[in-house]
Amino acid sequence: MAGGEASVERVKDGATGLEKLVLRAAHGCSVEVYLYGGQVIFWENEYREQLLFVSRKASFKPPKAIRGGIQICFPQFGNHGVLEQHGFARNRLWSVDESPPPFPATASNCHIDLILKQSPEVLKIWPHSFEFRLRVALSPTGDLMLTSRIKNTNADGKPFKFRLSYHTYFLVSDISEVRIEGLETLDYLDNLQSEDRRTEQGDAVVFESEVDKVYLSAPPKIVIIDHDKKRTFELRKEGLPDVVLWNPWDMKAKTIPDFAEEEYKRMLCVGAANVEKPITLRPGEEWQGRQEISVVPSSYSSGQWDPEIIHRI
């Protein structure tokens, strides 16, 4: 599909009433980012194929988090501490950052900058002043890049700790036909077993039942291979040592109100994260991390991913 000039447009979604920003790359790819949650909801390739999963039962009404896309889980992941599950960033209204600081140079001129700060409501549950800046960018070839910068702006001299995850819902053809390479031999925390620490034994991660794991000290790149679609997602990360992996399978899916029963077959959550060891920031200090996703056609040799015969779209 022929592309045009890269563009960014701010619109109001007629179906949900929520404001969003639509990024269109010259290559024909597009991304939709909602100000609610600072959340990427849709990501299409140049053939208008959706790459992210959004449940057909997803709620777009605050304060419910939107089930799908890429959720920003901050300042915690899971149910640690007194905050709501996965923190508050995914169900707060972000603002467009009109004067962002310089970000590392990228090949993209198609991006938007958002910012989330403390509010009286947030200060009641997390008594810290902060600035969370988020850049969402599309490369000319359709790679999706999220860069986060978090700064401690406390005036009282107090440090704070946080965890973060890009909770990314990938759309897949059939979860039983998906494999992940790059996590083999790693230690992980099994959230289905009271966060027991275990070691991955397989030569790749495959799916036959519910999974809820945090892989520790993961490499900077992993690949998610969708056999039926002949498609591979390459996930690269910086500043985020861990990788979160989740699929509710059939029984758990039935207990989730904003998740249709059979949808577990078509989704997989994989995201760069910092879970095991929280990050500490003193006043004035800033942390930065990023996640980048590319889509490439898959080629197989004895069921293994062969980078020598994969060519970037």
Give the topology, please.
Layout: E1 7-12, E2 19-24, E3 30-34, E4 39-44, E5 70-73, E6 95-96, E7 110-117, H1 120-125, E8 130-138, E9 144-152, E10 160-171, E11 178-181, E12 187-190, E13 196-199, E14 205-206, E15 211-215, E16 221-226, E17 231-238, E18 242-247, H2 249-253, E19 267-281, E20 286-297, E21 300-301, E22 304-305
Antiparallel strand pairs: 1-2, 2-3, 3-4, 5-10, 6-7, 7-8, 8-9, 9-20, 10-19, 11-14, 11-16, 12-13, 12-15, 15-18, 16-17, 17-20, 18-19, 21-22
Output the keywords.
313 residues; mainly beta; Beta-galactosidase, Chain A, domain 5; seven-stranded antiparallel β-sheet; 2 helices; 44% strand
Total number of strands: 22
Mean pLDDT: 91
Structural class: mainly beta
In spatial order, strands of the major sheet run 6-7-8-9-20-17-16-11-14
Amino- and carboxy-terminal Cα gap: 13 Å
Shape: globular
- The CATH topology assignment is Beta-galactosidase, Chain A, domain 5
- What is the CATH class? Mainly Beta
- Indicate the multimeric state: single chain
The ordered H/E elements are EEEEEEEHEEEEEEEEEEEHEEEE
How many domains make up the 3D coordinates? 1
Strand content: 35-45%
Proportion of helical residues: under 10%
Can you name the CATH architecture?
A: Distorted Sandwich
Which residue ranges are poorly predicted, with pLDDT under 50 across at least 5 consecutive positions?
300-313
- How large is the count of helical segments? 2
| Sheet of most strands | 9 strands, antiparallel
